[in-house]
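Researcher: First entry.
Model:
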Amino acid sequence: MPDPYGEQPLLTTAMTAGHHAVPEDERSRLQSYLEAVVAVRSAPVHTAVAFNAAYFGYDLAGDGYGGSPLSSDAFPVIKVGESAPALPVGAMVCITTGSDPLFAEIVHKEGAHPELGPLGEVPAWVSGAPAGAEGPGRPTDATAPRRRERLVPDVNAFGPRLSLSPVQLLRLRTRRRWIDEDGHLVVDVRHPSPEAVRRDDLTAYAEHLLTTARDQLLNPYVPVSLAELVGGTHDDALRTGLVGLLDTVRGVLHSSPALRTWGHYAMTRDRLAAGLHDNGPLGGDDLKSLVAAVEHAAAPAKRRFGLTSSATEYTAVGPRLRAFPGASDALRGVDYAAAVFRANLALADAVRGGSDQGLFENGARITLDDAFEGGGIWRSHHPGAAEPASDPLIPAGRGWTSSLAPAQSQRPEEEPEPEEGVEPIDQPLADDPDLGQGEFLRDDAHVVVWRAPLRLAHLRGGWFPLHPEAVRELRRSLGVVAGIRLELDHLGGEVAADSAVQEVTAVPEGDGVRLAGITWPQDFYPGLMLDLRLPRGGAVIRLATTELDEPVRFGDRVTGHCFDPRVVTREDAPGSGRGGDTAVGLGPRALALRTVRRCGLLTPDGHALQDRAALPRAAYGRRPARVQVAALMAAVAELFAERVLEPTVGSRDAWGQPHFPPRAGQPAIPLIAYRPTRQRVIRPWGGTDEGGGKLRVLHFVPGHLRRLRPGCSPSDVQRAAFRDYCRRLGKADGWELPPGYTFVTEHTRGH
């Protein structure tokens, strides 16, 4: 069985680039370990918890994190019933008690809104409401919103030495002063900003590790340090590597044939099957009853003459489970998280297997409306056929949306139903006046220097604008702007011999001047950042790209040079290139992705957010046929599932303009977000054998700790290597190897 402290590390450099970049043998080794972790943990294992196990060294024999380098003195302190800082799943905490502190790992959390009913009934406005919402259609305007949350701690995660006895735990639950009667923490959480509360689980946990738990993350006693994996302690490198590791762990959990997953949580198929075959409380029979209750929650009672009206009901899974006879004991401690996992998965399987996009035979449509509040809120609507079909397992927040006043906008005149053959339009760029604006860097007696990104129009037309100061200098020194010598410097890329030095022409255009007749290198792309230098008194412009320390992936673009993320998002979209820029001929997936990137609201880091209701018209330029809308939205659902696009919420002002983040007092609207992640790309190691010329695959192994056999001790060389390793991590205060371990220096291995 793989071991975090074994001879071969579980986490490798390749994993910092994400799940897709990991070699099969490394992925298989991590998968074997994580499957064993999921099998021995009592609660469903969240991606963040699985990362903790591999990174901090969770012992499968029963000691948990007891032998790990975690320092309990640095854990955040919380107390039931009190206000607390935002803590993600995976956080290590210290729960205050009247005597000994209670150390735990947060393994599950959910919303604990006071409006949740004892039978799982939920007011419509609660489902999908933003944090701090005060009532129907009344979102909070606080800059630091609060939300009531239920945190489920695993108080046995640190092994017997740091755990309280069952008698002590029973006493704490009975008193309800430090934990509630179920062994949970129900706290009012303070979120630092509205943006922070909308972070997904893994982004929130990465931020927690890089800030609150930074010393814990960079502890040199961990099996393999993140700083060693990414080659430094710079924040950007640590964040990129950490996001890649979390993506790798998530991918391994979701691809394991031995596990079932719901959101970020995983459980073994064997344990899930055993729970379904159990006839006791919250076993298979109760779960079937739950599915039936949700399916029929909105079904109308029979009336004379067949007259019925539409009805919508919302059911919260956690409170509904408590209504089953004998369920109290089955919801204590981490068993609560397991019960919520099984219930949500049972409902999801019923929707997948017994309905048509959530539409059941009795006419009711069942969808997941809120994945966080109350362990998950499911929406039942009858008649469901009247509602447009969409992915029923993507939380839509229709409850909250239905509580908002309709947006103030003019209704266009009715158009006739279009023909199915209508083609998508060539979407114009959204109005971004500062998109691609250059930056003036230097102006002295010797040189004029500026920087600007390459645009799609420049690439296709073979031209580039001159900065006004460069134009003034050329006119001052030459009297007339005409022939210019252009020298290209593209380190790390390829430039044809006839393109390195070019004779180009300065052509007046409006109030400015542009260089025309440029032959751009083949690997230049929209968004590539260019630095230009014009020595004073000359007619030579030197154009250079800036090489990154290592290649990165931004969305679907891999580059080794500096770039403008806003331009890459806008102009490197599907259908755009040197040969043309058109949406015609694109399939639904590429068309949906292109429309969001070209027409959505654009953020400084290259994210694009499109009004979901406006997507079809933006893609086709007019109202498309129903079959085309259905195909487009089905493609969006696929992209949601693959995390290429994400659902989010914005607002609409009185003039019909969307905004993100949502503004207080404005109606909320669903948005489609394109949020490309910036990840390092690991350069492949390789070479040829001197004998046969066969390619030899090499793998870089970072420095890491390894357990020794009983009676063995590390050499003086390895002790010195570990001290040097600690100094590289910023720990220059005489760190020594822990007993029973040696240090393996970084090296390469091949086969």
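Researcher: Second entry.
Model:
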Amino acid sequence: METWARARLALALLCVDPVGLTGLWLRARSGPVRDTFLEGLGALPLPRRKLHPGIGDDALFGGVDLAATLSAGDIRRTRGLLDTPSALILTMAERATPALGARLAQALDGGTHCLVALDESADEDEGLPSALTDRLGLFVALDNVAIGDTEIETEWDIEVARARLSRIIIPADAIAALTTTAASLGIDSLRAPRLALAAARAHSALWGRDIVSDEDLSMAATLVYGHRATIVPAGTPEEDEPPPPEPDRPDDSVEEETQQQDGIPDELLIEAARAALPPELLARLAAGRATRMSKTSSGTGAAQKGNRRGRPLPSRPGKLDGQSRIDLIATLRAAAPWQTVRQAMSPRGQGLHIRPSDIRVKRYESKSDRLLIFTVDASGSAAMARLAEAKGAVELLLAQAYSRRDHVALISFRGTGAELLLPPTRSLVQTKRRLAGLPGGGGTPLASGLQVALELAMQARARGMTPTVAVLTDGRANVGLDGQPGRAQAAEDASRLARSLRGQGIAGLLIDTGNRPAPTLGQLAAEMDAIYLPLPRADADRLSRAVGAALD
């Protein structure tokens, strides 16, 4: 019930000052709870306009009215959605591209629009483009709210509060208090204190006050800072600890301290923001693994542009080559402004004149499948432990692969060479069967492992996949490519293969499994242009999480 009450309060503040707060980020699945919440948008003073993540520039900014232009013979333009101040409602906002986020952010900076972003993402690594999360003042999550908790207990007079807003007085130390609190929570954007101040003014007007109070600032910190925090400030000292004795001071010092204490307490705002931090974020911060909630990486492979399938992209000038698909509407738009001139210059006179420079071809973008190539050191006394870790990590990563277009392969190097133990697959059953009873022991032919990984990566790239090589070793390479023992030759061969991987632009991750970080492995990772990650005694869970974080 507390979550719903806070969500309704955030919606009321947005209705009081939609332009000052810029907008609201609503994280909730489609359903009756979200529908009930969105009914409150009827109190907004701006007309509502719905957007979808695939909207084009013509719809946003306006463009050539094709039918009117061809009929009249001169250019006629249409008005875009951003031409009129409005409340923009972005559906499926988690699918918005950074380019769309930048265009909407520019509109929000103009001070005439507000945006309600409907985020239906299921995973934590999904979300809005950072350009929007930085500008939307309020955040509401309704994932754990049941329809029975949506009873309305408090009603506010939005019109009266909106009329009172311009008369709200801001204390001199309010801005400093909000700025200090933002810095204490690790918020590096200066937009956050400005948005928090707008929330405090709206909250004060909503409750009929003429001056922003400590309660208004606390609620503003809760609603604006809670989802932006990147660090958790240390808690206040225990109350049962006796305070240190205060030295005797003159009366003027006591009076000066009293005046300082009359200001807005920063601890109050920090505790208010701490109370709004999601539990999962607190756990990540406590473990030192804080991540931005607004990151948009989906874990998929590289983007591939084509003219057949995928997400539509804006059309580009092209040729009639018999292979590209012509964008007829875009071609006509390009030709329409020139019809009057062309008709006057052409002996044919009237009619539609299309030139080769008008041709526009369709473009699409699709995500390639990603291949993660585990290259595991199976030599020496720690071979069985490393293989067990690698097998467990492969199974954990494959369990998540079905929604991320991931394939996994496993290469083992030991003795005098390397062997492909598991070809690229997404089948968890086949993986468990192939990984059972793997051998270990012998020399460390690191160069051979890198060579097989390079060949497999090149084959995968030729099939349209995006390969990434993850190497697990303790760094004691002692067998060269020719199968002969010798540390110097083994190191030289490994360095040459590492440079080859870098030259081919293959992403890499080098995990040092030794008890102590090996400087030679750090140098090898630099030659591969790979991430170097020392993980002594890493289990399968830590290994899979490290690989997943490095890839994202």
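Model: Note on the second entry: Residues 383-399 form the longest helix (17 residues).
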